[in-house]
Amino acid sequence: MPVPNRKSPESLTDRLDQVTTLLRKHRLVENLVHKQEGAHQDLVEQLVHKQNTVELQRKLDELHPADAAFILESLPLEERLAVWQLVRSDRDGEILLEVSDAVREALIADMDDHEIIAAATNLDADELADLAPDLPRDVVRELMDTLDAQQRERLKSALSFDGDQVGALMDFDMVTIRDDVTLEVVSRYLRRFETLPDHTDKLFVVDLEGVLKGVLSVKKLLVTSDDQLVADVMTTDPVIFDPHDDAGEAVQAFERYNLVSAPVVDHKGKLQGRLTIEQMLDYIREENETDALNAAGLVEEEDIFASVWKSVRNRWAWLAVNLCTALVASRVIGLFENSIEQLVALAALMPIVAGVGGNSGNQTITLIVRGVATGQVQLSHGERLLRKEAGVALINGLVWGAVLGVIAWLLYFNIALSVVLMSAMVLNMMLAAFMGVVIPLLRVRMGGDPALGSSVLITAITDSGGFFIFLGLATVFLL
Amino acid sequence: MPVPNRKSPESLTDRLDQVTTLLRKHRLVENLVHKQEGAHQDLVEQLVHKQNTVELQRKLDELHPADAAFILESLPLEERLAVWQLVRSDRDGEILLEVSDAVREALIADMDDHEIIAAATNLDADELADLAPDLPRDVVRELMDTLDAQQRERLKSALSFDGDQVGALMDFDMVTIRDDVTLEVVSRYLRRFETLPDHTDKLFVVDLEGVLKGVLSVKKLLVTSDDQLVADVMTTDPVIFDPHDDAGEAVQAFERYNLVSAPVVDHKGKLQGRLTIEQMLDYIREENETDALNAAGLVEEEDIFASVWKSVRNRWAWLAVNLCTALVASRVIGLFENSIEQLVALAALMPIVAGVGGNSGNQTITLIVRGVATGQVQLSHGERLLRKEAGVALINGLVWGAVLGVIAWLLYFNIALSVVLMSAMVLNMMLAAFMGVVIPLLRVRMGGDPALGSSVLITAITDSGGFFIFLGLATVFLL
User: Where, by residue number, does the polypeptide cross the bilayer (chains A, B) (predicted)?
Assistant: First the structure.
């Protein structure tokens, strides 16, 4: 009895180990051979080298493209390129599609134009569109010439959309049928295919002009008797998309209606392509990457083994922003240097006011930004949300301010200082709550993305604001 | 010609508006009716009220459960409960499954035991398992009694796994077939179903004991001729999962191999259930929620219209952690109060060293944590990563330290101070890089989750470390 294989990630790590071991052997012997170059070369060593190479190649050939991509991503640059050289050239294209952007760049940089074109010839128009932005310009032009008219049209169309639009994500692997035939005819038609496109959970019903009239789900096809007409069993109001639709909204529709695939239709009703759950998953993954990277102050995904220089470039933009906001906060403190000289405890306590305010403001702005993204927060909710967040900030400010006030009193035996600290905590948290609601809603009203840099912005406000409030109150009431 | 409907999110907002308008009318008249209670009641008003209610109910009945859930989530508590009362009780169950955890809690709190049990009777064992944690204990016990033996077993089994295991996510809607029949027999068998389960992209081939022998993809079934045997065309090495597998790894496998559904099999090879892309999408969404919330210092998803008290409770844990780390940093500054008294510029400059170090450390730790999560960073890479991150930190520290040194000189005309500032920047960023690599790798070695609170931890270190390094250097060299 055949026992089903496990293809879970554990065994993937095993396979990574196997490849690494083989690679080390391969390179070890290669080095030996190289060292003896020109001199007498030991035939046995050459043979061992060859044998290792063959075994490694065989291992790589067996791997699913996604697994090969994973292994390439997990290897330091030098070893990565060594493995890449051993990959069969007709598999280059499908593996390039699977690796992360950062790694793809490195692999393409290692290929000459000829190799790139060879790799790309096995790909469909929508796959080429994914690769094109990373390819040298003249290679793309050359590739265009090798395509037939339909494929070239599709590639051009896909490239004309930006990455956040449905048109850039759709593929063209669709099965279309007419509505005036019986299901038996459909079944016979399908049997003429060698294989159906991945994620074919529905067939698209079109008329002679290519206008979508409905969809016939494969499930329906399987349970319905053969003699029925397509027109009688198809769904006439499927979820459809326009190529200009926002990809994020398409993702929400896929989640909401549990879709596997959906037709993309232009404004005249003509079928243009289809979206599949696969592209939606990729999009979700990339969006999450971007959010997580931006939140941490990184511009783009970074190959974990990227060179130091590349990494410096990826990180400098947000560091520069951070430096500016830190400088502003520093100048706010500078305003009060006299006060600090007179009461040095202020210097020790001021980062607490700023830090806790920042945390509290981040809590508020995160909730609002997420609510806006899912559509649950509307501009009209502003006042209600402000009241609620102000209430939360007031309670948290009073509680934690009192705790801190007691601790400060134990340290400095200065009741007035404790009261100023507590008041500053309350006020800074109220400021954080106010800004945490107002900033994202203002950005929505002005048509911007409320998420971008929201954490940096609120932290800058609570830092400078916290220093100003605390040192200002202290200057007025303590000195 | 039937024109396909758009079910995209724009029209969802429209529908939200319609429901809100109807609801306002409904409540307005309801209030009028209530005010006149006991007195003479205007029959016309009563009629208008009734008419509004009927229209609102009709609107709600037409909505997809996911859309009804969205509308409930987008309404403030009072209006939400009013709408909830109008939902047909046989739809309660499917809508409860779709709403977010926080909103579900509020809706269930508004139902009596009788209503909950009525809502739950329409659900499958795996759906019940999703709801069970939010239901009162005795309701769950009562529900158990209403189930047949198989459903009860399944519910118990699903509840025995924790939410991060495949066993808690799988469902039981599978079509199983034998391998000794022809595809024609399979087709005839399928036609006896009224409908197939969602996401049926493959049929599971089992023997008499329920041991999985392979899978037959629907695509294959459609293109292969009728007279072939299942055994000859099925795939014998599908991707399979164990109920104890980690859900996160299952998600990676679904993404890697473009799965729509996959069998779950116990250690004896017996088919237990199946995973579908729908559950994987939900899991991804929830994981992302959790990550985003934790990063912002929130414990759990918060209903945007939750009460102030509920929100305070959700937020206090991370505020408390933040307060402790801020206190430590404050005490570090306290050590150097003498130095600050002598050179008050230190107080203004120290937050810059801490802040930029924190940003830089967050960049490093984010990359390492993500690399660990995807499996691309292994313990053995530690040294190489340390070297790289130290290099990046050195360059960034020198560049930005020099910029800041110049600015500080322009402000304070003190070259020694500028040099100390620059040195402190470099050292704190090196500390951040070191800790950013070492902390997640140490946590992996000790078997923990490297992501949890990583940002808080690294910020705490770069704050206290930055103050200590800067003020320490200043005390030694400037005073």
Answer: 390-413, 419-444, 456-478
Record the tokens describing residue A472, joined without a space. Answer: 């200002």
Tokens 């809508």 sit on residue: B95
Residue B395 CB contacts under 8 Å (≥ 6 apart), including other chains: A308, A312
**Angstroms from A111 CA to nearest CA on chain B:** 23
Indicate the burial class of A464 (C-beta count within 10 angstroms; 0-12, 13-18, 19 or more). buried
- B255: tokens are 């993404």
How far apart are the C-alpha atoms of B429 and B433, rounded to whole Å?
6
- Environment class of residue B266 by beta-carbon count within 10 Å: exposed (0-12), middle (13-18) or buried (19+)? middle
Interface A–B counts its CB contacts (< 8 A) at 382
State which residue of chain A sits closest to B95, comparing Cα positions. A256
- Cα–Cα distance, A223 to A270 (Å, whole number): 29
Q: Give yes or no for a contact between A332 and A468, defined as CB atoms under 8 angstroms apart.
A: yes
Instruction: Please report the beta strands in A163-305, taking only residues with DSSP state E, as ranges in sequence order.
Output: 176-177, 202-206, 212-217, 261-265, 271-276
Check B319 against A348: CB less than 8 A apart. Answer: no
**Per-residue tens of pLDDT for chain A, all 479 residues:** 333 444 444 566 677 777 777 777 666 555 554 554 444 556 666 676 777 788 888 888 888 888 888 888 888 888 888 889 888 888 888 899 988 888 888 898 888 888 888 888 878 888 888 888 888 888 888 888 888 888 888 888 888 898 889 999 999 989 999 999 999 999 999 999 999 999 999 999 999 999 999 999 999 999 999 999 999 999 999 999 999 999 988 998 998 899 999 999 999 999 999 999 999 998 988 888 888 888 777 877 777 788 888 888 888 888 899 999 999 999 999 999 999 999 999 999 999 999 999 999 999 999 998 888 877 888 888 899 999 999 999 999 999 999 999 999 999 999 999 999 999 999 999 999 999 999 999 998 888 888 888 888 999 999 999 999 999 999 999 98
H-only helix segments in B345-381: 345-374
Q: What backbone phi and psi angles, to 5 degrees, belong to A46? A: -60, -40
Q: Which residues of A touch B258 (CB under 8 A)?
A: 198-199, 278
Distance CA A165, CA A175 (A): 23
Beta-sheet pairing, B202-206 with A212-217: unpaired
Residues ≥6 apart with Cβ < 8 Å to B413: none
Rounded Cα distance, B429 and B356, in Å? 8
- What is the rounded distance in angstroms from the CA atom of residue B197 to the CA atom of residue B191? 13
* Contact between B337 and A331 using a beta-carbon 8 Å cutoff: no
A257: three-class secondary structure by DSSP:
coil
Where do the domains of chain A lie, and which CATH numbers do they carry?
A: 9-160 (1.25.60.10), 176-295 (3.10.580.10), 308-477 (1.10.357.20)
In whole angstroms, give the CA distance from residue B150 to residue B391: 61
SS3 A261: strand
